[in-house]
Amino acid sequence: MKKFLAIAFILIAVISWSLSFPLVKILLNNNVPPITMAMLRHLIFIPMLIFITLRDGKTSFSHTKKAWLTFLLLGIFTIFIPNVSQNIGIQYTTASTSSIIQSSTPIFTIILAFIFLKESKNFSKIIGTVIAMIGVILLVSGGKIEIGGTTYGNILILISCVSYAISGVILKRGLTEIKASHLLCFETLFGFVFLFFSTLMFENVYTIATFDVYTWFLIAILAIFASGIAAILYYVVLIDTELSQLIVFVYLIPLFAVVFSYFMLGETVSLQFLFFAALIISGVVIAQKTK
Questions:
Q1: Are 146 and 194 in contact (CB under 8 A)?
Q2: Contact 156, 88 (CB under 8 A)
Q3: Cα(32)–Cα(26) distance, rounded to whole angstroms?
Q4: Which domain holds residue 258?
Q5: In angstroms, what CA-CA distances link 165 with 2, 40, 263, 268?
Q6: CA atoms within 13 A of residue 5's CA, in its CB half-sphere
Q7: For tag attachment on the chain, is the N or C end more exposed, with fewer CB atoms within 10 Å?
Q8: In three state form, how does the secondary structure of the chain look?
Q9: Residue 114 CB burial class (10 angstroms; 0-12, 13-18, ≥19)
Q10: How many domains does the chain fold into?
């Protein structure tokens, strides 16, 4: 895949993921339980995945035990653990602290990619990652690094970061032997099952009956764009791109999320934000240099 096309695909994925933040905030403000929301956005996405997978015929379910283990692990580390730990953890800590901790995900991913995937180590990748992370920390903290909240909540958010990093390594290896559509389909199925039982344990599932058409519309948008299109494009690009190089684009998510929040929620954008945004973008550009 040409680098320009790969960058275009991953940017579309990042923008789609960024859109989910204001949408989730709107849904939470409308009293939609967080884990229930995560479960439903994956439930809506499953029929589309099954349709895509079944087009391959009988081979869709003809996988080795190793492949099924990969599906299970991805369901746990990509969907279940991050959703549950984030939604529970954010109840015990502040949103800004959560964002700062979340920005450490690419660091864990790059370290794991160096160790388990034997990906290349170069100065540009390392320095670009550090610059982008500094930009994210300054952006979400408003330039004032004040870590608050309880230890319990912070640990849960950190667990979600490590979980995403682990899933990235598993996914990269899985893509060498399994079709991207099959990976996405079965990991979502397993993840949904775990989320469903988490919803039964932690939330009142009967609140679903009170959702109006607007609420279902927003959940559908989350499923199609943030869970669907974004994930598919990310998987396609990851096949031919080093994980440690690709994951740095995650730093762009807070940037686009704030822009969407400005238009959808009326949140203001300052000159300070623009400076920090430029810092993030410069870090991503540096990390993409191969020499």
A1: no
A2: yes
A3: 9
A4: 3-287
A5: 25, 24, 31, 32
A6: 7
A7: C
A8: CCHHHHHHHHHHHHHHHHHHHHHHHHHHHCCCCHHHHHHHHHHHHHHHHHHHHHCCHHHHHCCCHHHHHHHHHHHHHHHHHHHHHHHHHCCCCCHHHHHHHHCCHHHHHHHHHHHHCCCCCCHHHHHHHHHHHHHHHHHHHCCCCCCCCCHHHHHHHHHHHHHHHHHHHHHHHHCCCCCHHHHHHHHHHHHHHHHHHHHHHHCCHHHHHHCCHHHHHHHHHHHHHHHHHHHHHHHHHHHHCCHHHHHHHHHHHHHHHHHHHHHHHCCCCCHHHHHHHHHHHHHHHHHCCCC
A9: middle
A10: 1
Tokens representing 93 are 């800590």
Q: Encoding tokens for residue 62?
A: 């003809």
Query: What sign does the CA torsion over 135, 141, 144, 145 have?
Result: negative
Q: Do residues 87 and 94 make contact, with C-beta atoms less than 8 angstroms apart? A: no
Contacts of 96 (CB under 8 A, 6+ apart): 140, 141, 142
* Backbone torsion region of residue 176, taken as left when φ is above 0, otherwise alpha when ψ lies between -120 and 50, otherwise beta: alpha
Q: Which amino acid is at 78?
A: T
Nearest Cα residue to 157 out of 99, 228, 214: 99
CB 178 within 8 A of CB 70: yes
Q: Which residues of 247-260 are buried (b: 16+ CB within 10 A; e: fewer)?
A: bbbbbbbbbbbbbb
What count of other Cβ atoms lies within 10 Å of the Cβ of residue 175? Answer: 18
> What tokens does 137 get?
């920390």
Q: Using CA atoms, how far apart are residues 233 and 14, in angstroms rounded to an integer?
A: 10
